[in-house]
Amino acid sequence: MQPRESGRLSADGTGRRHQRHSLGEWLLVGLVLAYAGLLLVAPIAAMLHGALRPGLGAFWNEVSSPDALNALKLTIVLGLGATFINVAFGLAIAWVLVRDDFRGRKLVNGLVDLPFAVSPVIAGLMLILLFGREGWFASLTDALGLRVLFAWPSMLLATLFVSLPFVIREVMPVLTQIGIQQELAAYTMGASPWRTFWCVTFPSLRWGLLYGISLTLARALGEFGAVLMVSGGMRGLTETSTLYIFRCLDDRNYGGAYSMALVLAVISFSLLMGMEVLKKRTEQRR
Fold it and tell me: What does the H/E/C string look like for 13-80?
């Protein structure tokens, strides 16, 4: 017996079969599209309207101002730095959680998701408690002559915290799926652990790792709450793009806020779309 399919099937002149959806299925599709449009398309359209309504010249003047360029530069530096560190440590953490069994493994696995559960503002407050004047590490940083709080080190730590889980959660399922059989086969053929990783394991991890990188960078570029708590928001020094948007809104400079928000949205969207295009082209070449 043939499995029962929802809807009806029809054939065109080419012999291909098309599925006719029922009214309930169309209503469900319409509901999903309306929900996505309300949460995604409408805010983006409003942002485009606010940024470009004064004209392209006004938009360019806003995003090319010294304060905007300094904020965007600091945001990119922090984003790239947090991404690089989280890729290195995230890959190591994912490897240990999947391949090793040790006491406290479930605790560590749960702690990985802590940035999802904890508000970024609370994360910033924790950094203040650690590196503030009366913080746990205040005496150590003072002895070393390091300024952590209200400077870029604390901003980097805050960005690292909020963007930690993405590489780990993207890589762990792939490591679990591929297993260790191919690696063991490479070892029996005389391959070193380093060569086995690059020639056998890494090709299988590539797309999961790249998706983790893109999500980490996009999250780092858009961080606000934790950075707000630990940066001090000094114009031209510790003001990131999100803090620049916040200040523009506070100063009623809506054009500047919309323009910088549009730039950040375009960067994040380009990262994700670039990943999809690259993956599609790679699959077509195979």
Answer: CCCCEEEECCHHHHHHHHHHHHHHHHHHHHHHHHHHHHHHCCCHHHHHHHHCCHHHHHHHHHHHHHHH
Q: Do 97 and 109 touch, CB atoms closer than 8 A?
A: yes
Q: What is the DSSP string of 123-186?
A: HHHHHHHHHSTTSTTHHHHHHHT---TTSHHHHHHHHHHHTSHHHHHHHHHHHHHH-SHHHHHH
State how far the Cα of 286 lies from the Cα of 277, in Å rounded to an integer: 15
Helix, strand or coil, per DSSP, at residue 10:
strand
Q: How far, in Å, are 154, 178, 237, 285 from residue 141 at the CA level?
A: 12, 44, 20, 53
Q: What is the pTM of this model?
A: 0.82
Q: What is the mean pLDDT of the chain?
A: 86
**4: DSSP letter:** P
Calpha distance 238→197 (Å, rounded) = 39
The model's confidence at residue 2, banded by pLDDT at 50, 70 and 90, is very low
Contact indicator for 226, 120 with CB cutoff of 8 Å: yes
Condensed to tens digits (0 to 9), the pLDDT of residues 21-71 reads 677 888 888 898 888 888 888 888 888 888 888 889 989 999 999 999 999
Give the Cα separation of 139 and 5 in Å (integer).
69
In this predicted structure, what is the pLDDT of residue 286?
58
